[in-house]
Amino acid sequence: MNTVSFDVAIIGGGLAGSLLARQLRIAMPSLTIGVFEKRAETSYKVGESTVEIATNYFLRRLNLSAYLYEHQLPKNGLRFFFDDEEKSTDLWNMSEIGGVAFPYHPAFQIDRARMEADLLNMNQKNGINVYREARVENIHLGTPSKSQTRHSFDVQQAHNQNFHGQARWIIDASGRSSLLARQLHLRLPESGHTLGSIWGRFRHVTNIDTVGPDTFRKRIRYTSRRLATCHFCYSGYWIWVIPLGEGVTSVGVVLDRSVHWEDTLRKEEGFLAFLRKHAAVWSLLKNAELIDIGSLGSLSYGTQQYLSSHGWGLTGEAAAFTDPFYSPGSDFIALENDFLTDLIQRDLQEESEERLQQIASLYNDYMCFRYEASMRLYRNLYSLLGSYPLLKLKWQLDFPLYYHLWLSQYMQDLHLQEDFLRTQLSEQDLILNALSNFSLLFTRLDTHMRANGTYFHSNQHQFTNALEGVNWVEQVGTPQGLHQELKRLNQIFNSSRQSAFNLLPSRSDIEQIQPSLSLSQFLTPHPLVESIA
Fold first, then answer.
1. 365 domain residue, yes or no
2. Under a CB-based contact definition with an 8 Å cutoff, are residues 88 and 279 in contact?
3. What pTM was computed for the model?
4. What pLDDT digit, counting tens, does each position of 166-225 carry?
5. Which candidate, 309, 363, 392, 521, places its Cα nearest to that of 98?
6. What is the CA radius of gyration of the chain?
7. Smallest Cα–Cα separation from 24: which of 65, 64, 68, 61?
8. pLDDT score of 191
9. Residue 65 located in a structural domain
10. Cys staple from 212: which of 92, 113, 254, 381, with CB 3.0 to 4.6 Å?
11. Torsions phi, psi of 506, nearest 5?
């Protein structure tokens, strides 16, 4: 069997692996890179909605601006709709959270199959060795030495074109197959957040921009709802509607398995029957044709380790997955690929093993922090999704924090600065405490509103501009002084706290409220309200 050597071998030619290959080619043009994709052709995958970190990565790091605008769809933000208890509200009478113009910071709706195929072709033209119908087996991780060929593996190709591979770096981008991650027993189950999902692609879905009275379109200044990621929100689950271009629309549901899951939903008849129960959703689908269907019985999981200074790493769903709400998946790819590229570059520049271990440890710890911060947006909170005032409250905390903390950091490349990461990790418990404090407040409000019969009261005829209260989006990604950063963070926290109290019918339901709290009171384990009667 022939032996072929690579600087970097990437297992998987999906989104994460192909993006990493492109990034490595741009950063280090002389690298010998192999991408091994087990399928002959790319296939339909969910995860089509990108948000701002991922898009900044696509445009700024990978020079994909022209490609995305010419071959994929620009995304008009996230949009949320709310129904009555019987799921019978007309679409145009639903309460809604959404933008009234295209976002200042761009994002895209991507057809994963087309984009992955295009990336494989682009990579091949750029001199990357792309192997299709190629299965990687018998991975052997070598010693921690800096040998050019420290790892080995076998490649089984169609037509018996098999060979033995060697590589200085081996990257697992194999998706949920997680070949290397499973071999190293890295997977961490997410027992506290059990979700399942069913989805399908449809043709001839009714264009949401054409339904209802003109007042429905006028209230968002005639911008396009069809190009948004539309969420139809219910207690314990949500339904997405995402355009993919070329007349195809992705529709799926994510459910809390402990409350709503039935295996019959994974069949075409059960899936369509479920969607038919939702009048507004079905009004878009009643004349549509279902092309295909897919499902996953379990979504969320973590990993013990993302990368190693000894020449291996994980990216995309081979590493971890949090939750599809807010579409964070490709954001994690951006971070993981940036860290892998930097570590590979350091290794090839002959940095010492001690330095590589220090940097790898920082990157691992930061990714674990980001995973946990993301999970605290979701755990135990699916119950409140179906209430307009509750999700509005959550959105008006989560969205400003995403822009102020995570997006702004990424756009300035602060995550690639060692001192910044050390500071972030020293303060991670403070951010996690704040997220937990608000999560507890939201769940108590959920319980209170259900007990008082007000959970569904505002689910019709209300509208909130998604940017309400956020008048600083143009400053995102520009350096801010520490005082300004902390001041804005405190404003975000206090605004959310005050909005939460405004949902209560009278102040007698809670203890005496201070008009505002100091930042330290949000960042330490501190109930934001002791009791809600």
1. no
2. yes
3. 0.96
4. 999 999 999 999 999 999 999 999 988 999 999 999 999 999 999 999 999 999 999 999
5. 392
6. 24
7. 61
8. 85
9. no
10. 92
11. -160, 150
